[in-house]
Amino acid sequence: MELEKIELFSYRNYKNVVINFDSGLNVICGKNAQGKTNLLEAIYFCVVGKSFRASREREVINMQSDYAKIKVYVKKNIGKSVIEIIFSKKEKKTVKIDGIPIRRLSQLLGEFNGVFFSPDELKLIKESPEDRRRFMDIDISQTTKQYVYLLSRYNEILANRNKQLKQNLPIQELKNIMSIWNEQLADCAEKIKKYRQNFVISLMPYAQKVHQYITDGKEDLVVEYVTIKEDSKQDIINKLESCLEKDVQLGYTTYGVHRDDLKVMVNGVDVRTYGSQGQQRTCALSLKLAELSIIEDITHTRPVLLLDDVLSELDDDRKRRLLQYCKNTQTFITCTSFDYDVDCKKIHIENGQIIK
Ligand SMILES: Nc1ncnc2c1ncn2[C@@H]1O[C@H](COP(=O)(O)OP(=O)(O)OP(=O)(O)O)[C@@H](O)[C@H]1O
Ligand SMILES: [Mg+2]
């Protein structure tokens, strides 16, 4: 997959620009607040149909305009596609593929694949298990529609089960009512566990390899899926039953895949607890870069890579090796200065304009 060109009209601090890109490394240089992240945001908008930072989409419209437009020209394995997003202050945004408006954002899936990384992605290592579950869930959802359904079904049943726990019912009566919820919850849990397990199994070798590469063989990355012990539906049901009294006491379901986590280890130690800042960052980066390969395996085309502000975070060796690694992927990387001896197209941005 290759992004050949982008056109922006009244998008954030861009008035009207056209930018052509290289099929390899594209370095987006500029001082603070010139529009580097805005450009990545616009590109990634066409990947997922959403912004990675605007909570209200109208924010992206230039303050002096009533509407905004992003248009990208994507070269695919076979053929090309043009994705256009039009934002208006008054109406909902319109997304068009080859000039034809789509009805659901899910129709955008697969038109233009990309992986985005910013320093914020450190959450993946440092923050709560929820962030790591989200990482797995977003990735699996990108390629498996059935998973999206399973997950929402699981959460719905879980919410119902939790509600029942708080009804102060006699334990025998509660046991009877719970048998339906337990059965349904176990059915989803068994499948979710399998999907996540397979995801981690396919992620691991890629993450390990890229991590080895960036750290020049100094660090060995291991990702472990932390989940429920039970595999079969019946075993999960039994376990849910045996937890009932504890669950009533605490008022929530203490057992299940909603408590899954990922353990990320470098050279045998948990990087969340013992890793340095740079190590944690490199791990988050390796996991994201591994995503490229997983998506490529499934879609048979390499997604584009968007890296916001990553260079300032890494030491010189790691920076160089990362850039080297990116050579075979169309990459968009932002930075405030760039003096590395690698083949790239430099795009200088000043106040929403491209400086030649
Ligand atoms: N809707 C909008 N209309 C006009 N300007 C906007 C709009 N939204 C954001 N901006 C401006 O865009 C500017 C550039 O933002 P951006 O985050 O892209 O900077 P950056 O080049 O990534 O800077 P940094 O190096 O600090 O990360 C900001 O100064 C912001 O005020
Ligand atoms: Mg920025």
Q: Could you explain the architecture of this structure?
A:
The protein has 356 residues and is of the alpha/beta class. The protein has helices at residues 36-48, 123-126, 129-143, 145-165, 171-214, 233-242, 244-250, 271-274, 277-299, 316-325, and strands at 2-11, 14-20, 25-29, 67-75, 80-88, 94-97, 100-101, 114-117, 221-226, 261-266, 269-270, 304-307, 331-335, 345-350, 353-355. The strands form 3 sheets. Strands 2-1-4-5-6-7 form a 6-stranded antiparallel sheet, with helices on one face. Strand 14 (345-350) and strand 15 (353-355) form a beta hairpin. Helix 4 (145-165) packs across helix 5 (171-214). It starts with a strand and ends with a strand. The site of magnesium ion has 5 residues, from helix 1. Magnesium ion is lined by residues 36-37, 308-309, 334.
Present the secondary structure layout:
Blueprint: E1 2-11, E2 14-20, E3 25-29, H1 36-48, E4 67-75, E5 80-88, E6 94-97, E7 100-101, E8 114-117, H2 123-126, H3 129-143, H4 145-165, H5 171-214, E9 221-226, H6 233-242, H7 244-250, E10 261-266, E11 269-270, H8 271-274, H9 277-299, E12 304-307, H10 316-325, E13 331-335, E14 345-350, E15 353-355
Parallel strand pairs: 3-13, 3-14, 8-12, 12-13
Antiparallel strand pairs: 1-2, 1-4, 4-5, 5-6, 6-7, 9-10, 10-11, 14-15
Bound molecules: adenosine-5'-triphosphate and magnesium ion (MG).
